[in-house]
Design goal:
mainly alpha; 49% helix
Amino acid sequence: MPVPTGTEALTRNPLYRSGKLTVPCGIQPEDSGSFTATKKHLTAMLNCLNASWSAQLKKVGLPFRNPKIRFIAKPTRACGSAWGENVTGRYCDDKRQLVVLIGEYAIEDPADPVALHLIAHEYAHHVQNLTGMSASYWNMPARTKAQALAQSRRFELQADCLGAAFMRSIWASQEYQDEDWQEVVDLYRESGDEAFDKERSHGNGKNRVAWLRKGFAAASPAACNTWTAPAARVS
C-alpha cells in the first residue's frame, strides 16, 4: 500500500485500522548507575518499539524502517536547534533520527515509566513520519498563528496517544503497576501548555491526560485520531 498523502493521511490513515498493538516485550535489564547500563536498557526498549510498530504497520501494508538512534549525555543541538529546557528526547523528521538524553534521572532509574513514555512519544513522531502524517501536517496551510498552533496541538496530542497505546501493549510484560501509570498521568497533567508553553503548541494538561488515557485504554492507534476531534478536545 502506498503511503497516504494530503488530508486523508491525517484523518483516514490506514494506521487507524491496524488494531491493537500486540507485540510483547520481555522484562528488560534494569542495571542502573552508569551511562552504559542505561543505554543498554533503553536500547532494548527501542528494539521493542521497533518490533511493535513494524508489526503494526505491516498489518495494513505500510512500509517500515527503524529510526536512527543517537544517545547523548548532556543537552546539545539536535534537529538544527538548541536542545530546550525539560527535554529528554527529540525526533528529527528529516534524518528519521531519535535523539535521547541520558541524564542523571535516567541513570538512577532506567525503567521509570515516565521516561519510557517520553521516548514512546518521540518514537510516535517516527510513526507519524512513516505513515505520511508528518508530511501532511507540515504541508497544512495556516492563515494565522492560532491556526498553526491548533494544528501543532493535534500533532503532539496524537503522539501522546500513540505513545500510550504502545505503553499499554507492553505494560504487563514490564511488570508495571497501577501506581506507575498514575505517575505518568500526573506528570502530563502538570505538563500542559499552561505550565510550560504559553504559545499552546502541545495541549493543556486536561487534554494531554485525556488522550493519554484514550491510547492506554485502547492499546490501538484507532483511539488516536486527533485530526477529526472537536476543537475543545485539542485545546
